[in-house]
Every structure is written in structure tokens, then in C-alpha cells.
Design a protein that fits this description.
2 domains, Peroxisomal Thiolase, Chain A, domain 1, alpha/beta, 12 helices, two-stranded antiparallel sheet, eleven-stranded mixed beta sheet, acyltransferase, Ketosynthase chain-length factor, Thiolase-like, transferase
């Protein structure tokens, strides 16, 4: 069984559809700016990658608007784009052979904050009934399943930044178990005071200059910028996709692996390298066959150093290009991996490696071939996408051009 991607849907801070996002990324146009959803002046972090110009009412039925949170609104919009891009008509396929797997790390935090404010300022009767479900990590999977009548196996992955890749890996497993199509990916939206405060104990950049706040692998990196958005993909069994005459075959999900780091103080190394090696082995490709690595790119010096060392250890003398287009969106948590997979597939389609924004060269501690300032034209047939989640999650996913 070969898993092929036939549909893409993107909601990103620098583009609210696939081609708009890709054009902005190749032009090195960032969606990171001062937070507009609320006044951030009293917070130590004032920048984020917000999805601007998006009106949920244009994409989500009015009934669902009051039942769902922003994370689900973004996924419903991206999911519809992916369905249309794939040319899939779910009603024409067996409903129990189509599933949904999404990832999320922050939940519907802005929905929950609003309802708790209603409780604080009023009474229990002022809290909406949907408070019980709209905040939940699995709400997006359920709403996508209901809306498109995808009644096969469904699930949600909660592994922070690694989640988007884990959802795609789980979707490939469902295809191997007999499903013919799976909707996969991840979206996030924690753009509320409560959502921002929950992230402050982490590694957020305190700089207020959008061009200097998130600088992965740079000598003066100081953390990352939060963001919202993500991507939804349609993944199908290649044979069945061909039978229905799928218009697009962006690439194959060729390899996937996930690991978990040992607890601090155990004297054992982190396991990102192991995840990379296992994903490559799963795909049956050698390091020399990889044309680009889409990095996790935390923007935190010691974490960037550990990632650069893992890349160097796996690829050795093969100086594989490394890029971090999330430098233009912020770290979208569970939405980031899925969005990077979209970028990897478009790199294969167009023969170009997107740049890392605002970084002129990697710092002296990072022995990697970082693509900076402008796109790099080169044939791309195989890409490795990396993601690490807070707490020790590591995931690696290999995508490659369709092997006819």
C-alpha cells in the first residue's frame, strides 16, 4: 500500500489558502506582527503569527460557529479546501472507509476563556452548553467527521509540535488497515490572553521587532514566536486514488517514526536522531537521497544546537539543505508539522527550497547548510520533515515524489 497526498488545505498567518501561503513563503513574506486579537501591551510577549483577514462565517455554517472554537474554524476551512483540491466526493465513497486524524495541543482556549468570563460576570446560566465540548482537543476531529460524513476510524493526537506529523503517520496506518481515504493534519489557535499566558513559561521571544524576534539557528536567537493556523491534507491509498481519477498526487508519505526523549538527568542523549534514522529506514532511502530537511527550528539556542547536531550526525558529509519556513508564521504547535509537510510537497512539485526568513547565515554553533534570504532552485524528490514537542516528543516524516 502506498499513501499519496491528493488534497491540501492551508490556513496560515501569511496565507489563507495553499497557493497564497506558498507564494508568500517563497517571497519571504512574514505573517508575524503585533498581536491584534487583544491588547498585548501589558504582556511580556507582544508578537504572534495571527491568521488575519479570515472570517469564519465565510467558511463555517452559522450553527457550527456557536458550537466550535477558533481552532476548529480554521480546520473546517482548511478541510473544505483539501476536499475540493482532492476532488473527493465523500458521498460517493464508502463512509466507513474514510477517517479523520487531527492534532492539537492548546484546545479551544479562547472559547473557554470567553465562557468562564460569562460565568464570572454573570451566573452558571450564562455559560453556553457547548463549553463542555468546544474546548476539547478532539472537537476538530469530530466536527470534520460529522461535516463530511467520514465515519471510519477517527482520532486525535496530543503531542504538541510533533502532533501534526504524528497525525499523518497515524493516517497512513489507517490506510494500511483498509481505509481508502483519511483526512489528516492539525490546527491551533491560542490567540487570547489565557492562551498567551499559558505559553509564557516556555521559550517565547520577548523582542518586539517582528524581523528580529524569531531567528532559528542564528547566533542571536532568543526564542520563538507563537502562531495560529495549520494545514489539513487528504491522504489516499494510491491504487484507489488512481481508480477514482484523482487530479493531484502531490507526493507519497514514504516514511515515519516517532521517539520520546529520556528524562533529564538520566545521562542518555535525546532521540531526534533515532527518529530521523528510523523514518529514513521506513522509507527505504539513504541520507544521500534526501534533498531537503524541514527543521523543527525552535529558535532556542541549546535546542537548535541539538537539532543541528542530530542532522549533522545523520547526514555526515552529505550537506543537505535545511530550511525553516515557520520563521514566517511562528511556531503553530500541532499545526506546524502539517504545514511543513505541505511546504515539502510543494517543494517537490516546483523544484525549489523555501528560505528561512530574517536569518542571513547560521550561527557558528550550527554546522548546517541553512537556506536563507531567498529560495534555492534545485530538484527536490525527497524531503525529511522534523518536529519536536515540549516534554520530549520527536517525530520525523519522509515525503517523496510519486514513484510511478
Amino acid at each position: 500500500m502506498t499513501a499519496v497526498v491528493t488534497g491540501l488545505g492551508v490556513m496560515a498567518p501569511n496565507g489563507t489558502d495553499t497557493e497564497a501561503y506558498w507564494a508568500a513563503t517563497l517571497d519571504c513574506k512574514s505573517g508575524i506582527d503585533r498581536i491584534e486579537r487583544f491588547d498585548p501591551s501589558s504582556y511580556p510577549v507582544t508578537l504572534a503569527g495571527e491568521v488575519s483577514g479570515f472570517d469564519p462565517a465565510d467558511h463555517v455554517p452559522s450553527r457550527l460557529l456557536v458550537e466550535t472554537s477558533a481552532m476548529s474554524h480554521l480546520a473546517l476551512a482548511a478541510g473544505q479546501m483539501a476536499i475540493e483540491d482532492a476532488g473527493v466526493v465523500p458521498a460517493e465513497l464508502p463512509e466507513y472507509e474514510m477517517g479523520v486524524v487531527t492534532a492539537n495541543a492548546t484546545g479551544g482556549v479562547e472559547f473557554g476563556q470567553r465562557e468562564l468570563q460569562n460565568l464570572w460576570n454573570g451566573s452558571p446560566s450564562d455559560v453556553g452548553a457547548y463549553m463542555s465540548i468546544a474546548w476539547f482537543f478532539a472537537a476538530t476531529t469530530g466536527q470534520l467527521s460529522i461535516r463530511h460524513k467520514l465515519r471510519g476510524q477517527c482520532g486525535v493526537v496530543v503531542s504538541e509540535q510533533a502532533g501534526g506529523l504524528d497525525a499523518i503517520g497515524q493516517g497512513r496506518r489507517l490506510l494500511r488497515s483498509g481505509h481508502r481515504m483519511v483526512m489528516v493534519g492539525g490546527t491551533e489557535s491560542a490567540m487570547s490572553p489565557a492562551g498567551l499566558v499559558a505559553q509564557l513559561p516556555g521559550h517565547l521571544s520577548r523582542r518586539d521587532d517582528p524581523a528580529r524576534a524569531y531567528l532559528p539557528f542564528a547566533a542571536d536567537a532568543c526564542g520563538h514566536v507563537p502562531g495560529e493556523g495549520g494545514a489539513i491534507l487528504i491522504v489516499e491509498d494510491a491504487r484507489r486514488a488512481a481508480e477514482r481519477g484523482a487530479a493531484h498526487r502531490y507526493g507519497e508519505i514514504a516514511g515515519y517514526a516517532a521517539t520520546f526523549d529520556p528524562a533529564p538527568g538520566r545521562g542518555r542523549p535525546p532521540t531526534l536522531r533515532v527518529a530521523m534514522e528510523r523514518a529514513l529506514a521506513d522509507a527505504g532511502v539513504a541520507p544521500a537521497d534526501v534533498d531537503v530537511v524541514f527543521a523543527d527550528a525552535s529558535g532556542v539556542p541549546h535546542l537548535d544546537r541539538a537539532e543541528a547536531e542530530a542532522i549533522s550526525a545523520v547526514f555526515g558529509p552529505h550537506r543537505v539543505p535545511v530550511t525553516a519556513p515557520k520563521s514566517m508564521t511562528g511556531r503553530l504547535y500541532a499545526g506546524a508539522g502539517a504545514l511543513d509537510v505541505v511546504a515539502a510537497l510543494l517543494s517537490i512539485r516546483d523544484g525549489v527550497v523555501p528560505p528561512t526568513a530574517n536569518v542571513t547565515e547560521p550561527g557558528p554553533d550550527y554546522d548546517i547548510d541553512l537556506v536563507v534570504e531567498r529560495p534555492r532552485r534545485a530538484p527536490v524528490s525527497t524531503a525529511l520533515v522534523l518536529a519536536r514537542g515540549h516534554g520530549g516528543f520527536n517525530s520525523a516524516l519522509v515525503v517523496r515524489a510519486v514513484q510511478d
